[in-house]
Amino acid sequence: MSIQRTLSIIKPDATRRNLTRVINEHLKRSGLKVVAQKRLLLTKAQAAKFYEVHAERPFFSELCEYMTSGQVVVQVLQAEDAVSLNRKVMGATNPEEAEAGSIRAEYALNITENSVHGSDSLENARIEIAFFFAEFELVV
Ligand code: GDP
Q: Alpha-carbon distance 88 to 68, whole Å?
């Protein structure tokens, strides 16, 4: 195990309900340190690029609509084994299958509006962090 960084997004359903602070407290309690953070309104092109691996999936346009429907908070989390730790703290994609006490079990509305994103591998974490943050924003 080693200290890793992972990309997290607090999605529009959560920012709309003012859950940024409680989700950040949940992350902190779970050992994930927020080392960079900013609030954005994504364009359709940015959302489509970020989720391009899902371009052929039936839910792709719904996903892009949703991700541009309100503000998101993009953040870099740091911890020992941060990528898999954050996936565990987030819970399963479908909140009905998410482990009790996980962020999605507590706050997600449905499989699309599931409150948070987290990188699914260390390689994707590097790509996703670089998508949203310049090197000079990662100073911790
Ligand atoms: P994640 O890594 O757990 O976020 O899941 P994925 O990478 O598979 O999917 C990306 C996002 O697309 C999810 O977080 C959901 O917002 C949405 N999504 C995934 N699967 C479905 C689905 O079957 N139906 C719908 N409507 N949305 C989905």
A: 26
* Residues flanking ligand 1, CB < 6 Å: 59, 62-63, 93, 111-112, 114, 117, 120
Report how far residue 125's alpha carbon sits from residue 2's, in angstroms, rounded to the nearest whole number: 14
Tell me, yes or no, if the pTM score tops 0.90.
yes
With H, G, I as helix, E, B as strand and everything else as coil, classify residue 56: coil
Give which of 74, 17, 14, 19 is closest to 41, Cα–Cα: 74
Distance (Å) from CA 133 to ligand 1 centroid? 23
List the catalytic residues.
117
H or E element that contains 117: strand 116-118
d(CA 96, CA 117): 16
> What are the tens digits of pLDDT across the range 64-106?
999 999 999 999 999 999 999 999 999 999 999 999 999 999 9
- Cα of 93 to ligand 1 centre, how many Å? 6
